[in-house]
Amino acid sequence: MKQLCASRKLVLGLQYFIPIMEWAPRYNFAFFRADLVAGITIASLVVPQGISYAQLALLPPIIGLYKLPASYHLKN
């Protein structure tokens, strides 16, 4: 096995614990545009769903909006 220099080991270790450091240099505007469209699409579906679930639970609709970020992270 090849010996890696200390700086290369540091970079590999950082990329392991902070994955954005690996793919960020290759990220371009086309990826950003696609990610933006995907985010808007998901938001247009999830916001009305959150409001509806709050109303079904007889809660104010705004509660459904407050719940959205938590529910997304719990599913993933």
TrEMBL record:
Assigned GO CC terms: membrane
Protein topology in the membrane: Multi-pass membrane protein
Principal location listed in the UniProt entry: membrane
Compartment(s) of residence: Membrane
Residue span, SLC26A/SulP transporter domain: 32-66
UniProt-recorded name of the protein: SLC26A/SulP transporter domain-containing protein
Residue stretches in coiled coil: none
GO biological process: transmembrane transport
Species whose genome carries this gene: Linum trigynum
Entry superkingdom: Eukaryota
Keyword tags: Membrane, Transmembrane, Transmembrane helix
Keyword DNA damage tagged: no
Membrane spanning residue stretches: none
Pfam families linked: Sulfate_transp
